[in-house]
Amino acid sequence: MPRVFSQLEFKWTSWLRKARPKASRRGASRREDGGLTAWCSEQADRLSLSRLSRRVRVCWNSRMSSTAGQASWPDCLIQLNPRLKQIGEDETWNTLRHELAHLVAYERSGRRRIAPHGPEWQQACAELGIPDEQACHELPLPSRKLKPKHLYVCRKCRTEWYRVRPLRRSVACYDCCRKHSGGQYDERFRMVKLPLPKAANSS
Question: Has this prediction a pTM greater than 0.90?
Fold first, then answer.
């Protein structure tokens, strides 16, 4: 029986990060799909998102394992797991729409903070033909469970956030920003790093 895997690994990449050499291993593992890129560009045009239409790209990433798809913002890059081709064409298109919906939602929100699978994303999914889309799907992909190594907490509501990788930018509690700041980033609710409890570290 297939396990439940997250459909999305969303990444907000830093535009200050130095570009990797073209001959790097990561570049060699990604192959752009011109047909899927053109389709996404047409959909962005249909939704009057000209900037996204010009920048969106779709690649097959042979290094992806447990993740079906990944949307990177503000790079406007969608990466798909080549194993989707073996699962079926329907799942490929469903995953592509799922990931494109993330880019549409973030393009529309500008600098306003939104939840990855919040109402903005759900609206974009409906406009792209998948109105009942869920954040997770049952796909026969290999599982990968990594231990969390970092713990962050909101200074206001004390919500805890466990992370495998450390944060590379300032991140605020989404619920508190939405409740008290209209969804705008507010330094008062910035997530603060704390020592990881021994129980979580040894699990």
Answer: no
